[in-house]
Amino acid sequence: MKIKLIRFFSIFIILFVLDQVVKYGFAVHSWNYDGSYMSLNLAYNYGVAFSLLSFLAQYLKYIQLIVLFFGFIYLYKNQDVFFKYHISISLICAGGISNILDRFTYGGVVDYFYWHYGFEFAIFNLADVFINIAIAIIIYIQIKESRNDKKKV
Fold it and tell me: What is the pTM of this model?
């Protein structure tokens, strides 16, 4: 268990700092680049995914902090869930907390990846990638366990 906590905090700190450094570069130093497939251009997202709930912009950071608080309470009471998914949870926490910090620091989430080759996709950031990778890992674990359970029956 101790190694899982160390792994959790190590992944969290490294990814959180990496994401904040990159966002600082875009927000303060204008690290913009226009490519033929993908561009790196600063944009602020005042909502959540795909700018949903942007009408709650000034309240979202507090709503997200409350959700985060209850999430930590859940994980504290269900430590088996935490230890089973500790890597995914570290990715989600790094991305989620980084995006919440953006709301306090910059007034909105700092986004910069913009895919525009063949189709246009929503602009996103590294924290969003962390969260999506974490969800993919959780789904993989669930599918693997489901297949193992079916083999036992």
Answer: 0.91
